[in-house]
Specification:
It is found in: Cell envelope. With 593 residues, the protein is of the alpha+beta class. The chain is 22% helix and 20% strand. The protein contains 13 helices and 25 strands.
């Protein structure tokens, strides 16, 4: 009698079909807010340029120190100074990953922090008193106060990506020394940003070919605003988990329909994909548990793996819109009314086929965690068009027609609010990402329900990559009309690579990824308490306030994607809760008797 065992084999290729509208278009790991998303960071840059710490281990929201470039921080007795020891990883050009690489990053961050998507005013590096190299393999950071050590590790040190000395230059033939001289950092940044913007030259660039991760770029092809990329193993990679595969291909898709057509062809066809995403409108039978998934319509060739990440789902409102609409957005009663017009439970049932779950505030409801406030286990503004209409009528609006009209201007009780003239209509524009049938269905239902309350919303589909560039954080001025109103890119915010769900990035005044430019002194004060305290009461107080203030419109949440993984491809599970991927762990098998 013989037994069969499965043994990993070297070789093979995996093609990853990118989410429609989102493929790698920014390679420089000093990424601005406009490009600060999963497609550029977690599914592209980190494969080649490792961050200081790697987050997510065995499917759990913890730090993976084995994959990290550094040892755990060591804190002084006063709790304000952390010393970090860097492991002796190698860059592909032979350089050692060391303290100098961290210092180069820090000098660029200090000089160009406004251009970095992970920067929030008042926080890292603003909250440092000093930092410096204390040995070839050690750097220290002294903070201006005693902060939560968990928050610093997960939300502050997570922004650091050591850079190679080879990148410390101001031109191809002009080495610089921003590693030691911060005054040179802006010129070095300008050079690296220019190299990034020359997308046609990525795969031959002497800059981007210097990597310390398990992968390096072999080919990159521009397809309009999208890009197709082929990565191959970095033979000089000195970390654990060296790649089994020969190549990893990232290909753009035009729409959910395009994604599904590729999957229908199967993984073994010439243009087949080994990992894609099942569109929600192609689900044939509902799931009882969004974490486990339901029956798979592509089960002949693929295994269904819900990619449940630690995230919230919402769309922003432009508080900085300089017209009367911006003034309306600042009125809490209006935001509460608008939120009450969104039928989250209906969308979860009818659109997302049971794979959804509510977003009840700024902390994810799943995976379950003690970080979630008890009050946030319930929707603060359940779907209720009658309540929405009553809120508007109680605050100076005639809802007998759509759009409703302001009939009681002013700032007193029962009046519409500051700067809202009589006769103003509740008429708005909503731009949303094209190519997602489920999003289109949710938006159309939302607009119809809002109209029943007196709020007219004109819907326009826009290519996702264009949407995130145009409808973003802005200040009105000659070069920035800042006129967008509502914008939905079919996403929200994933708490990764850090885990602690404080709100300094999303809701604090001036943050580059506070896309709607929400600003509230009380929110700022509550956020400030969460970053200095590990007391859950402070985190709960912050999220309860933000949930009820509706700084964004909370959308029904769902697994980030429903991964379809080709049968025979192993190592993809468990899913990283922060959206990072490790294709170096993936492999095919050969049978042995």
């Amino acid at each position: 009698m013989s037994t069969t065992t499965l043994t990993p084999r070297r070789g093979g290729s995996v093609t990853w079909a990118c989410t429609s509208g989102f493929s790698p278009v920014f390679v420089f790991p000093f990424t601005p807010g406009d490009y600060y998303g999963v497609a550029n960071l977690h599914e592209f840059q980190t494969l080649m340029y490792r961050p200081l710490y790697w987050y997510g281990s065995g499917g759990q929201p913890t730090v993976d120190y084995e994959r990290s470039l550094a040892e755990p921080p060591v804190w002084d007795a006063d709790g304000r100074t952390a010393t970090i020891t860097i492991k002796p990883y190698k860059w592909s050009n032979g350089e050692t990953v060391d303290a100098d690489g961290v210092m180069l990053w820090m000098h660029l961050l200090e000089a160009e922090k406004e251009r970095f998507g992970g920067y929030t005013p008042g926080f890292f590096p603003d909250n440092l008193v000093s930092y410096g190299k204390v040995a070839e393999d050690k750097v220290s950071f002294t903070f201006d106060d005693a902060y939560s050590h968990n928050w610093v590790l997960m939300n502050q040190f997570s922004t650091i990506t050591p850079l190679p000395k080879a990148w410390d230059r101001t031109a191809d033939d002009a080495p610089a020394d921003a590693t030691h001289d911060p005054a040179q950092a802006s010129a070095v940044y300008a050079y690296l940003r220019a190299c990034n913007d020359d997308r046609a030259g990525w795969d031959t660039s002497p800059v981007w070919s210097v990597v310390n991760g398990p992968w390096k770029m072999d080919r990159y092809t521009i397809d309009g605003v999208s890009g197709e990329c082929v990565l191959v193993p970095n033979e000089s990679y000195s970390g654990p988990n060296k790649p089994w595969l020969d190549e990893f291909r990232l290909i753009p898709t035009d729409s959910d329909g395009d994604q599904y057509e590729r999957l229908l062809k199967g993984p073994d066809t010439p243009d087949g994909v080994q990992i894609g995403f099942l569109p929600f409108d192609e689900i044939t039978e509902p799931a009882e548990d969004p974490m486990a998934g339901g029956p798979n319509p592509l089960g002949e060739h693929y295994d269904l793996l819900p990619q449940l990440t630690y995230k919230i789902h919402y769309f922003p409102i432009n508080f900085n819109n300089p017209t009367v609409k911006g003034r309306i957005f600042k009125e809490l009663y209006f935001r509460q009314a608008l939120q009450s017009c969104l039928d989250s439970n209906g969308a979860i049932r009818d659109v997302y086929k049971g794979y959804g779950y509510p977003t009840t505030g700024p902390v994810p409801a799943l995976p379950d965690s003690p970080l979630l406030s008890p009050a946030r286990r319930h929707d603060p503004y359940p779907f209720d068009v009658d309540r929405a209409r009553a809120l508007l009528e109680a605050n100076g609006w005639d809802t007998s027609t759509t759009p409703a009209l302001c009939v009681r201007p002013g700032t007193g009780p029962g009046e519409a609010g500051e700067g809202i003239p009589a006769g103003t209509p509740l008429r708005f524009s909503m731009r949303y990402a094209q190519g997602h049938e489920t999003l289109t269905e949710v938006m159309r239902k939302f607009a119809a329900d809002a109209a029943r309350a007196g709020i007219e919303i004109e819907l326009t589909e826009v290519e996702a990559s264009v949407l995130v560039l145009e409808d973003t954080t802005c200040t009105p001025g000659p070069d920035s009309p800042c006129l967008w109103e509502f914008s939905d890119w079919n996403g929200g915010w994933g708490y990764g690579p850090g885990f602690y769900p404080t709100g300094e990035a999303l809701y604090s005044t001036g943050s580059s990824v506070n896309f709607g430019s929400y600003s509230d002194p009380e929110a700022d004060a509550l956020i400030a308490r969460t970053v200095k305290s590990d007391d859950l009461a402070d985190l709960h107080a912050y999220q309860d306030y933000i949930a009820e203030q509706v700084p964004v419109i909370w959308m029904p949440n769902f697994p980030f994607r429903l991964l379809e993984v080709a049968k025979g491809l192993h190592g993809v599970a468990p899913v990283n809760p922060f959206g990072l991927i490790n294709p170096e762990d993936w492999y095919y098998v050969e049978q042995e008797l």
